[in-house]
Design goal:
CATH topology of the largest domain: Rna Polymerase Sigma Factor, Chain: A
Order of helices and strands: HHHHHHHHH
Largest sheet: none
Shape: globular
CATH superfamily of the largest domain: RNA polymerase sigma factor, region 2, helix turn helix motif
Number of domains: 2
CATH architecture of the largest domain: Orthogonal Bundle
Helix content: 55-70%
Radius of gyration: 18 Å
Length: about 210
């Protein structure tokens, strides 16, 4: 959704700032499915079965209601990226609480750049990719492909791996992915193309994988 002055989203934001709870709920619901996908992909696999994406989103909604006035300070930042940041910070707090990891206070983060939320693991990315494929159905073959895929992902530069997640799974535009990573649009595009090429070279032609 493109957000410009005068668009419906802008009107909802203003109404929500004025205390309109229905507008706030409508704003969040407009992006709920994308946020759920982001949380599911980045949720630590050790927490599967203990933490549900819906619970993370519920807490993120409360964070949004409390922090909405802060959005005025995010000049030029698309609303979805700001909402994604708040949700990612909530997920970071969940990880810190359950895994007792030494993470900095995510609620104090103001940057939209990398490091403000958990990264997706190679296993999670591989699982998502294989879940979109219909050609690899036999269990043994599927397991072999997953191992090769995880190895190829682990061999990528972390930023290249992250831009695959942003573009391919979170469906961010090149512009928004560049904003998240603190890159120029050209650099972000080049990294995305390079990451795809290296994965395809490592894995060979597998129908249904990354557009093959």
């Amino acid at each position: 959704m493109i957000e410009r002055q005068g668009d419906p989203v802008e009107g909802l934001i203003e109404r929500a700032r004025g205390g309109d709870e229905a507008a706030l709920a409508e704003l969040f619901d407009a992006y709920r499915s994308r946020l759920r996908g982001m949380v599911s992909l980045r949720l630590d696999r050790r927490l599967r079965g203990r933490v549900d994406a819906s619970d993370v989103l519920q807490d993120a909604y409360l964070d949004l209601a409390r922090r909405l006035p802060e959005y005025r300070e995010q000049e030029g930042l698309p609303f979805f990226l700001w909402l994604r940041l708040i949700t990612g910070q909530r997920l970071m707090l969940v990880h810190r609480c359950h895994l007792q990891t030494a993470m900095r206070d995510a609620s104090r983060e103001v940057s939209i750049y990398r490091g403000t939320m958990p990264q997706a693991s190679s296993a999670s990315i591989a699982g998502q990719l294989l879940g979109r494929m219909t050609s690899v159905s036999q269990r043994a073959i599927r397991a072999e492909v997953q191992v090769k895929l995880q190895e190829a992902l682990n061999a990528l530069d972390p930023t290249d791996r992250e831009i695959l997640v942003l573009r391919h799974f979170e469906e961010l535009s090149n512009r928004d992915a560049a904003l998240v990573l603190g890159l120029t649009k050209t650099a972000a595009s080049n990294r995305y193309v390079r990451a795809l090429k290296r994965l395809r070279e490592a894995l060979g032609p597998i129908p249904g994988l990354l557009g093959n």
